[in-house]
Amino acid sequence: MARYPELTIDDAYAISLGALKRRTADGEKVIGKKIGVTSKAVQDMLGVHQPDFGFLTDRMWIDGDISVKANGLIQPRAEAEIGFILNESLKGPGVTAEQVIAATEAIVPCFEIVDSRIENWKIGIVDTVADNASCGVFVLGEARAKPRAHDLPNLRVTVTKNGAPLSEGYGHAVQGSPAEAVAWLANTLGEYGVTLDAGDVILSGSLVPLEPAKAGDIFEMQLHGVGTCTARFV
Prior knowledge:
Blueprint: H1 9-25, E1 30-36, H2 40-46, E2 52-57, E3 77-86, H3 97-102, E4 104-114, H4 125-130, E5 135-140, E6 156-161, E7 164-170, H5 178-190, E8 201-206, E9 211-212, E10 218-223, E11 227-232
Parallel strand pairs: 1-8
Antiparallel strand pairs: 1-2, 3-4, 3-8, 3-9, 4-5, 6-7, 6-10, 10-11
């Protein structure tokens, strides 16, 4: 943004979609979407005060250890989230949180590993949007739960780093409820002709502050009443 101050958010999304087109041309497959900068804790940390969105591809889904070098991570940070796995498509405008819950096969504990090409994370909204909402890779826990079985706004997450307590948060940190955050995503994407599709993995935003990560770090999260997820960096 400092180099091109004239860029708008629409310009940034055009850049993001252009980069996605190159990734899919190289053989990557879109398997979901992500919401970024949804919680006050993250907004205050980054100085960005509105949500954004990005795309998830199959190469971004890590099943096992996260290799900082092999995955081309620059300055990764870990954030604990509630993931949604959809079994029905959603297309905005007009999508509600209740419709999100009805379209969700399961919720899942997850870590998103965000990253940025901008030195020292000195980003603005245009920077993070253009950079695919600062998404690096993500890890899903094994647990699956029906969303109606839980009070989503009051779901509690606790996070440890290298065995020591790090942070905790609740579902209401993301726009009052993670289902509301996903509804926002469906409605915002609808403005760009993009849908949330059956089978998509949707990352609903961090419930806790972002934490820098490096090779050797182990992050563990417990989404209380649902299950756990581990992000191990090598």
